[in-house]
Amino acid sequence: MHYLDYAATAPVCRPVADAMYSSLTAQFANPSAQYPAGQTARETLECHRAVIADALGAAAESIVFTSGGTESDNWAIRAAIHMGRHTGKHIITTAVEHSAVLEPLKALEQEGYEITRLRPDSTGHVSAAQVAQALRQDTVLVSMMLVNNETGCVFPIRETAELLLQRKSQALLHCDAVQGFMKVPCDPTDWGVDLMSLSAHKLGGPKGIGALYIAPERKNIRPLLWGGGQERGLRSGTEPTSQIAGFARAVELWRTEGERYVRHMAEMKDYALSRLLTIPCMERIGSGEAPHILLLSLPGYPSGNIITELGEQGICISAGSACHKGKPSHVIAAMGLPKRTAAGAFRVSFGPETTVDDLDALYAALRDHQARRFPML
Fold this sequence. Notes:
Oligomer: single chain
Helix content: 40-55%
CATH superfamily of the largest domain: Type I PLP-dependent aspartate aminotransferase-like (Major domain)
CATH architecture of the largest domain: 3-Layer(aba) Sandwich
CATH class of the largest domain: Alpha Beta
CATH topology of the largest domain: Aspartate Aminotransferase, domain 2
Distance between the termini: 28 Å
Number of strands: 12
Order of helices and strands: EHHEHEHEHEHEHEEHEEHEHHEH
Radius of gyration: 21 Å
């Protein structure tokens, strides 16, 4: 198999699986139990929390574990509007956020909130100037992703935080950093982000575990779940210790090897561009800076057909976010691309394990796909 869909998920490596196995078998006690095995489990869990917090340059108490990025996004949005309930009912986001942000905002629209969705330019970027133009006195939340999961564009989180501070805005800033964490600069404390969503499985950690960074000044955030008081009473329920162990181990690996990983992914991206853009009619969409995501198009060749045919050959790419499940990409639609370009769009994404052989196989398969349909090209 030639796996080139790391933006959808990454394989769990052996050190992460080993950490999870140890937690499942040797350190299985409930962290809330009062006997020594339970207290050891609690101490281990807090060490894992510190690993993830350190990677963000944050205090350990700023990290609350969740079931993943979607939960973190939903919780952040609902908690932010509760905090700002006396300020107003206006929210700013972008038209190219993940569905885990856009869908809860649609629900809030039905509850009387006004949503301003900033559209990207032709390169896929949005700007802090657009936020400035949209900002109002009754704005309670700005929700903007760090890296777009389809274009790879890096968004101006730091600049937006500075803008809110300069304007003395009461709006909270939420950042969905699921696609950018450990791959591009990510410093919520220094930047002034109020809430930041994370997920393990984009880093080679397990699925079903994520975290929400909560700035110290927002520590009185409304709980997500009430119950036994776990996670400082903010998200009750017995902690999934094996998944947390896997998350922390994946982050440790990225902290140790991240510079090499990022350099390798950038090299693979450059190589992919050098090969794939020699295919007649091939276009690059946008100008995403993230090292691991590349959006391309073969206008006139429906991407669904390409994905299916290449998949049968063991080559895994996508037509955009894996969460679309075959539906047209709202990201590509928001960029206002020509219909033929939009219809032929597909995403290639890279990881530490990506090889030149993977990309050569992709090139050969795409060239063959094209030649069999338009042999004159």
